[in-house]
Design brief:
434 Repressor (Amino-terminal Domain); DNA-binding; homodimer; 6-stranded parallel beta sheet; Rossmann fold
Chain lengths: 340, 340
Amino acid sequence: MAKETIAGLAKRLGISKASVSYALNGQPGVSELTRRRVLDLAEELEWYPSSSARALSRSRAGAVGMVLSADPLLIGTEPYYMGLLAGIETALAEGDMALLLRMVAKDPAQERATYERWAGERKVDGVLVFDHLHDDPRPALLERLGLPFVLHGAPDTGSPPALSGTTADHGADSATIVHHLDAGGHRRIAHVSGPQTFLHEEERIRGVRECAARHGIRVEHYEADYALESGRKAMTHLITAGSAGPPTAVVFGNDLMSMGGLLALRDLGLRCPDDVAIISWDDSLHCQLASPSVTALSRNPGMQGRVAAELLLSLLDTGEVQTRSMPGSELVVRSSTSPT
Amino acid sequence: MAKETIAGLAKRLGISKASVSYALNGQPGVSELTRRRVLDLAEELEWYPSSSARALSRSRAGAVGMVLSADPLLIGTEPYYMGLLAGIETALAEGDMALLLRMVAKDPAQERATYERWAGERKVDGVLVFDHLHDDPRPALLERLGLPFVLHGAPDTGSPPALSGTTADHGADSATIVHHLDAGGHRRIAHVSGPQTFLHEEERIRGVRECAARHGIRVEHYEADYALESGRKAMTHLITAGSAGPPTAVVFGNDLMSMGGLLALRDLGLRCPDDVAIISWDDSLHCQLASPSVTALSRNPGMQGRVAAELLLSLLDTGEVQTRSMPGSELVVRSSTSPT
DNA sequence: CGTATTACCTGAACCGGTTCAGTAGTCCCA
DNA sequence: TGGGACTACTGAACCGGTTCAGGTAATACG
């Protein structure tokens, strides 16, 4: 229990520190016999190498960082993040990396300051970046800081890729959704997206617009901010601010907004799906529990986190910059688009 | 951008490493002039001290750990954890501590191994422990490992407290709930709790039983496991396995089980609250969105996390073992207990 | 005026690992 | 028999901070 050190182990075994180190790290330069003796002793003493000493001499922190930059309110209610986190942690644990988590209010300056600090202190070996923005300043910043990173939801920039990241086929997702609505006979739909500063929203908007055009469906776009209330407001606006007739179906950018939309319908005395159908771009327990239950695109956040983390690990390990596309999302059809 | 070191700064300024270190850490032994020069240069160069070097020489990791030990499925759906995390992170950030997060399946051996590893590697300065168990082996383990910890939901062990932790007044919470049901005229209620291995569940069960007895209310207890399905099963059992008449109100140990209960009622063709009222021991968006919306005890997980983290910080800082009781929970009355 | 005190500063040791250059010893083969 | 190659091992430097035990020089005191 007294804190042993490598020097201590060496003395006990009558060999040098160097040999102990080689033995522990599976490096050549020691006989099998010596290696066994070292490993056995380490186990017997329940000894582990000091992470800080190791980090110092290897100039490697043994940890990756992740800044969750969102409204504290949203963080607490958005199940997507938890799933993502779980996936990330699982992958990192397998690669023997620790996860440093930092939550900041939606404030670019704070996120930036965190990266600068982490890079300066060499506290993390790399970071996971989420929600790629239009003209995102973060890749350039991280590049300048020399901090390796993986961009979750990166643009597909051809090969070889310019930066490491995961890509999702938003066009295919859009098509899945629009096809489903088309099959349901909808001719006037609305798309309530998150902020267009997010690159993936831009792609989704385009995807929906183009696919709808091909099917001769009129689509109205409304920009909101992922919060429950903004979904409610969007729906109210779409129904009451009568442009050329209200939509018969509304696609929401996440589950919370979908819930808001549902509430708005109830307040307006309209029925879902009979009067207005609803689709959520994100599945979660909320969609299952709502009444009516909400048709949703299941994106498997756990898997996404896992893949992103694996990319980062291999980037740190081999320096290999690569992108990986997410497995296609699956549409879970529920009552909100199935007229009775 | 070239990675500066303390030696580099010292050379530039023509002074010794020691002086630079003293200046940076606000320690005596340098003139105000020198201190300013050092700080200015550090800022100009965007220099930060290497965390691993600092950790090594101070023998302090600058991080605290937290093991989230739960079903991956539950972690992803249970909003309580996210709120807790957000609170913890906020407090830690203010104290300049990093948060190391580790998620493991509900497996005591893995949690134990994580603590042993962290202690051995001196990777964290302390840990946050959640969900105090009956005969919890963790305090003794952490004591043996010499790892300071704060127990969230510790028993109130008089003064001076034996270990650092937060306490909640489960008796008062129980009373709040039972009073509300009593006022609603309920005479036969059921309490669907989480596993009794959790100390707080034990206290809740006792609290509900005793308070109900004082009011002449009959209470039936059912042990479940926090999952949606178990709530559903519990409700089904309570209604159909007719003991002396089904309850007119059911208290669920968390929000997920409450949702399950609601689903079961729907399946059984019963109406809430007219046939059976529901109260959740945990508030969340689910309770607000459900139809009917569910009366819930709001426990403010963010605040709880914050307090726990602050306790740990002060324990690490001053070594002071203390307990702090959580601000009382508040009952948010909604439709599920308000007959129309 | 001599000495004790203080303020400021420095060289060197230290934290606990990794790693490089170098030293024996062994084996092999011409 | 001698030398090249290989294996097993070691001492010491190094990573980048912190901290301790002095050492000046200036100031205070009797």
